[in-house]
Amino acid sequence: MTDSLLSDPLRARLADARLYLCTDARRERGDLAEFLDAALAGGVDAVQLRDKGLEARQELEYLEVVRDACDRHGALLSVNDRADVALAAGADILHLGQNDLPVPHARRILGEGPLIGRSTSTPALAADAMAQPGVDYLCTGPTWATPTKPGRAAAGLELLRATAALRPPRPWFAIGGIDLANLDEVLAAGARRVVVVRAITDAEDPEAAARAFARRLRALPVDAG
Ligand SMILES: Cc1ncc(COP(=O)(O)OP(=O)(O)O)c(N)n1
Ligand SMILES: Cc1ncsc1CCOP(=O)(O)O
């Protein structure tokens, strides 16, 4: 990948992102649109539909709703795991885990278009991902164990401190068990961007929750990455 983050409009938008929401398809599409309008009005910068139970056709139907909501609010649309679905949905981002498509293969399918994000769970994996051409951002965690990703041990705040110490040249996000009550610990560990699920999807007032995250995340400067 090139490191010309700010010369590419999509990478510039990613560099500005602080709050990344993953949501499942538990809501009907009309309710999903309303929920997303609230979360995006509150300050969510990127939305991923993360629902392992959907077939591609259903996923695309839901992604239309997410695409429209992101367009209304100028946010980035992210697709999890599948390069074909990302292309078909006109996604801005494809997010890949350690066991998903290798980045060069995904890039071959995607061409120059969407950005690619990579999950990491140790500082060594983060360093490795940063060294890979084509990785546009990292996501590291789970910081705390979470029912949203069962069976995965907590990596702890130490993972965030170690990742921050690497001074990643690309944006990096902390994930896993993050909520408004522990956000200060996440920020103190050096993270400046977060991915959240339940803290917004389960919030009584998703707009207020997103606004509180965004205000506190945007109060601090980010590094070049
Ligand atoms: C933005 C973002 N970050 C991390 C993940 C987790 O991806 P992965 O490790 O591949 O796990 P699954 O989501 O596939 O269960 C993500 N999806 N999005
Ligand atoms: C997808 C994923 N990958 C690592 S933790 C996680 C889920 C985070 O969800 P929550 O914010 O509800 O803890």
UniProtKB/TrEMBL annotation:
Gene name linked to the record: thiE
Biological-process GO terms, alphabetical: thiamine biosynthetic process; thiamine diphosphate biosynthetic process
Keywords, sorted A to Z: Magnesium, Metal-binding, Thiamine biosynthesis, Transferase
Cited function: Condenses 4-methyl-5-(beta-hydroxyethyl)thiazole monophosphate (THZ-P) and 2-methyl-4-amino-5-hydroxymethyl pyrimidine pyrophosphate (HMP-PP) to form thiamine monophosphate (TMP).
Binding-site residues for Mg(2+), renumbered to this chain: 81, 100
Domain Thiamine phosphate synthase/TenI stretches: 19-200
Cofactor(s) needed by this chain: Mg(2+)
Pfam families on file: TMP-TENI
A GO cellular-component term linked to this record: cytoplasm
EC numbers for this chain: 2.5.1.3
Cofactor note: Binds 1 Mg(2+) ion per subunit.
Binding-site positions, 2-[(2R,5Z)-2-carboxy-4-methylthiazol-5(2H)-ylidene]ethyl phosphate: 146-148, 177
Residue ranges of the TM segments: none
InterPro entries, sorted: Aldolase_TIM, ThiamineP_synth_sf, ThiamineP_synth_TenI, TMP_synthase
Top-level taxon: Bacteria
Pathway, per record: Cofactor biosynthesis; thiamine diphosphate biosynthesis; thiamine phosphate from 4-amino-2-methyl-5-diphosphomethylpyrimidine and 4-methyl-5-(2-phosphoethyl)-thiazole: step 1/1
Protein's name according to its UniProt entry: Thiamine-phosphate synthase
Record's catalysed reaction(s): 4-methyl-5-(2-phosphooxyethyl)-thiazole + 4-amino-2-methyl-5-(diphosphooxymethyl)pyrimidine + H(+) = thiamine phosphate + diphosphate; 2-[(2R,5Z)-2-carboxy-4-methylthiazol-5(2H)-ylidene]ethyl phosphate + 4-amino-2-methyl-5-(diphosphooxymethyl)pyrimidine + 2 H(+) = thiamine phosphate + CO2 + diphosphate; 2-(2-carboxy-4-methylthiazol-5-yl)ethyl phosphate + 4-amino-2-methyl-5-(diphosphooxymethyl)pyrimidine + 2 H(+) = thiamine phosphate + CO2 + diphosphate
HAMAP family named in the record: TMP_synthase
A GO molecular function held by the record: thiamine-phosphate diphosphorylase activity
Binding site for 4-amino-2-methyl-5-(diphosphooxymethyl)pyrimidine: 48-52, 80, 119, 149
Protein family according to the UniProt entry: Belongs to the thiamine-phosphate synthase family.
